[in-house]
Amino acid sequence: MARPYTLSPSGLYHALLDFAAMSRILAESGRSAPAFGAAIFDLDGLLIDSEPLWRWAEIEVFATVGVALTEAECHQTTGLRTDRVVAYWLERRPWDTEHTPAAKIVSSIDRRVIDLIGECGEAKEGVAHAIDFMRIRRLRLALASSSTMPVIEAAIDRLGISDAFEVVHSADFEARSKPAPDVYLGAARRLGVEPARCIALEDSVPGVEAAKAAGMCCIRFPEHDGPVSSADLELSALTDLDDDAWQALTNAVPAAGGGRVPATG
Predict the structure, then answer these.
(1) Using one digit for the tens of pLDDT, what is the confidence trace for 38-75?
(2) Which position among 18, 44, 203, 242 bears the catalytic label?
(3) CATH architecture of 51-120
(4) Is 244 a catalytic residue?
(5) Is-catalytic flag, 42?
(6) Banded model confidence at residue 255, pLDDT cuts 50, 70, 90
(7) In what side-by-side order are the strands of the sheet with 217-220?
């Protein structure tokens, strides 16, 4: 059953603070609108705690063709579209594709993830706050994910945030998936906002690479320790989005190449 998108007392408090902050910023700067025009959210690992579910599904499904994966090995393909995950392991640990085609593995993983999301998918901490934070700053909202539309719909329905986004865009509509920029460029195009005026919110390194290749500013919320990314700003959690983070982001953007601001919180 879908969980309705509601603003908690804590969320209302943050929203009021954000509104006051933005009013002050606009008054001081003399601008009638923020420099950024849109915020484009990733999905898996950012809004919904689904990365463990993907690993669960991959371990189960690949085992049916004799490919035994560990949790650590599954981390190697985090953020990639399912067909790319399957291609990755087919190249390294081939199986009999005449008996079990790669496409069958792809569909089996997606179906299993949809089932798991329906059974136990949970929102990441701070989802409502992040959405309100960007709305208060007059940014239009979109979602851009490597997942298929059925997976995306299962996730946002589970979280009750289906109405939060003006555009919901899947890499399945594009020739290439993350780390290629296509899904972010597609979302920006559908919004009618120039990529340079978009903020991407990501958790994975391939996702950050996709956003930066699209010419966007990017905030990364790493789910676990890993390689340093080229994100303009790194925060520990969505709840760390505040005035200081916003100021750090706007300060980082003008620098050529985008100097990364370390994770805080």
Answers:
(1) 999 999 999 999 999 999 999 999 999 999 999 999 99
(2) 44
(3) Orthogonal Bundle (1.10)
(4) no
(5) yes
(6) very low
(7) 167-170, 140-145, 38-41, 198-202, 217-220, 233-234
